[in-house]
C-alpha cells in the first residue's frame, strides 16, 4: 500500500538535516506526476538501463519515494485545509471579541469615572495590541467588573454582557490555542513534505541521468528523462522572447 512507503521512509526523513532540504521549484502535484510517469518509463527501459550498471534497486527506491511524497503532500494539504477553516472561524470570533472588548472598556470607563485606580487599569488594558493580549486584558477587566458590580449597576449596565464576554473569552481562548498549534504543526508537516521531495528528487535526478546517457540521440525516449513542465516553460519563454 502507498501508506507503507511513507512509513518505510519516515525514519530516513526524520533524520534528514534541515540544511539538506530543498524547495520544489515547480508545483508539487506536477512533480509527483512526472515522477510517477518516470517510474513507469523505467520499467519499460530497465534492460537497457541495467546494461550501464544502473543499480537494480533504483526503480524500487524511486517508486517508494514517489509514494511517500504523495502521502506527505496529502497530510500537509489536509492540515492546511483544517487550519484555513480554523483561521476563518478565528477571524470572525476575533472581530466580535475585539468589538465587545472596546465596548466594555467604554462602558466601564464611565462607571469607574470617579475611581482613578480603576481607570488606570482600563487605560492599561486598552493598550492591548494582539488578539492574545486582548484576551488577557479582557480577562483582567472582567475581574474588575465582577469586583465592582455596584458601580456598574449605578449606571444601569446590562450585567448579561459580562456573561456574554466570559463565554466569548473562553471560546476565543480555545480557538487561539488551536490556531497556534496548527501554525506549529503546519511548519512541521511542510518540512516533512519538503524532506520527502528532497529524497525523491535525488532519485529522480539519478534515474534521469542514466536515461539521458543511455538514450542520447533517441529523442522520443529521451524526452521521458527530463521535466516536461520545465520543457514547456522554456518553450513558452522562447515564444514570448521571439515575439518581442
Shape assignment: elongated
How many E-type strands? 0
Order of helices and strands: HHHHHHHHH
Number of helices: 9
Number of domains: 1
Strand proportion, as a percent range, falls in: under 5%
The low-confidence runs, each spanning 5 or more residues with pLDDT under 50, are: none
* Rg: 30 Å
Helix content: over 70%
Mean pLDDT across every amino acid position: 89
If you had to describe this structure to a student in words, what would you say it looks like?
With 244 residues, this protein is mostly helical. The chain has one domain (2-243). Helices cover 82% and strands 0% of the residues. It contains 9 helices and no strands. The longest helix has 55 residues, at 160-214. It is elongated, with a radius of gyration of 30 Å. The two termini are 51 Å apart. The model has no long low-confidence stretch (mean pLDDT 89).
Outline:
82% of the residues lie in helices and 0% in strands. The chain has 244 residues and is mostly helical. The longest helix is centred in the C-terminal third of the chain and has 55 residues, at 160-214.
SSE layout and pairings?
Blueprint: H1 2-15, H2 28-50, H3 58-111, H4 116-126, H5 131-147, H6 149-153, H7 160-214, H8 219-222, H9 228-243
Properties at a glance:
mainly alpha, elongated, 9 helices, 244 residues
